[in-house]
Design goal:
Radius of gyration: 26 Å
Shape: globular
Number of strands: 0
InterPro entries: EmrE-like (IPR037185), Sugar_P_trans_dom (IPR004853), TPT_transporter (IPR050186)
Order of helices and strands: HHHHHHHHHHHHH
Number of helices: 13
Membrane topology: Multi-pass membrane protein
Protein name: UAA transporter
Distance between the termini: 34 Å
Keywords: Membrane, Transmembrane, Transmembrane helix
Number of domains: 1
Subcellular location: Membrane
Length: about 350
């Protein structure tokens, strides 16, 4: 019988496939940066050019468009929604409330403190993320990870140097908002990589409608809903409706990319990315909106960017170290071939 001795196809496994996964995760992270900055500029333009000063309504539009976008993706077959039980649905409800409460606390605290103080305290989110991950998830971080956060935190402090006035209630609310932001990021990661293993679009589909309802309730409680109705009667136009719709579509893609990047990287990486994005927003404000900054602010921006790059380098090195297979010092002996086994059996029989 003829045997076809064609070589076996090459399978890219082990380190190569893992490196591809790491590269993909950072590609999603880069996309998260771009969309986050784009939405920041877009929101600023809407609030400035169209005098649409209704942050809760804008958040409601984001959650509504995210729900519609995720539902459309499900109908087109991009993902299949998971079958969840009563306990899992309760987790989704609590997560949506955490998502909305995080926004609410952040907005309320901004009325009690200056923007500079708010940004500095929010820069501590990676520290709270590490503490939560260690205390509740049993995670361990290397010494170099902690060292890489030092220039990042110092850079954000320098970049936002200015008026640090605040009230006692404002301080408490700002710290509470920072803790909630860390908890939200950690929970988002656990929902997608833990026992539930939800697809990012599936998570968005379940969370967004609940967050939309809660946002409308918060808007009504703060009196914004009545102001929006009055604004719509006199100032609303087809152009503004189109602008708000495009804003909501960008928010949908940002939420999807954010959840995917969180799933492919880690909660700590996402909080570090949020800090760097915060400083990049200052750069955008300087270049697009002609905001004036001082020498120390500029030095802080540079330090933050370098700190973010340093953290990314350390994170990538440690991922490669965890994924590198262990090679034994002495290779195990190869099993004898079938011909060698036959010879051994023949010798034993003759003896």
């Amino acid at each position: 019988m003829l045997v076809n001795n064609r070589p076996h196809p090459l399978h890219l496994t082990g380190g190569i496939s893992r490196m591809t996964k790491v590269d993909t995760s950072y590609a999603w992270l880069a996309l998260y940066f771009l969309l986050n900055l784009a939405l920041t500029i877009y929101n600023k333009a809407i609030l400035s050019n169209y005098k649409f000063g209704f942050p809760w309504t804008l958040t409601g539009i984001h959650t509504l468009c995210s729900a519609a976008g995720a539902l459309t993706m499900a109908k087109l077959g991009y993902f299949t929604p998971a079958q969840l039980g009563e306990r899992e649905n309760m987790v989704m409800l609590m997560f949506s409330f955490l998502y909305t409460l995080n926004i609410a606390i952040s907005n309320v605290s901004l009325n009690e403190v200056t923007v500079a103080f708010h940004q500095v305290v929010r820069a501590m989110t990676p520290v709270f993320t590490i503490a939560i991950s260690i205390l509740f998830l049993g995670k361990k971080y290397s010494a170099m990870t902690f060292v890489s956060l030092i220039p990042l935190l110092l850079g954000v402090y320098m970049a936002t140097m200015g008026d640090y006035s605040y009230t006692a209630m404002g301080f408490i609310l700002t710290v509470l908002g920072t803790v909630l932001a860390a908890v939200k990021t950690v929970v988002t990661n656990r929902i997608q990589v833990g026992r539930l293993q939800l697809h990012p679009l599936d998570l968005l589909l379940r969370m967004s409608p609940l967050a939309f309802v809660q946002t409308v309730i918060f808007s009504w409680m703060r009196g914004e809903l009545e102001a929006v109705i009055a604004f719509s009667r006199t100032e609303m136009s087809y152009k503004l409706v189109l602008v708000l719709l495009v804003n909501g579509i960008i928010a949908f893609f940002l939420n999807y990319v954010s959840f995917t990047a969180n799933k492919k990287t880690s909660a700590l990486t996402m909080t570090v990315a949020a800090n760097v994005k915060q400083v990049l927003s200052i750069v955008v404000a300087v270049t697009v909106f002609h905001t004036t900054i001082g020498f120390l602010n500029g030095l802080g921006i540079l330090l933050t960017l370098l700190g973010g790059a340093f953290y990314s380098y350390i994170d990538l090195q440690e991922k490669n170290k965890r994924m590198r297979p262990l090679t034994p010092a002495i290779p195990p002996p190869s099993p004898p071939q079938s011909s060698e086994k036959a010879e051994l059996m023949k010798v034993r029989i003759e003896n």
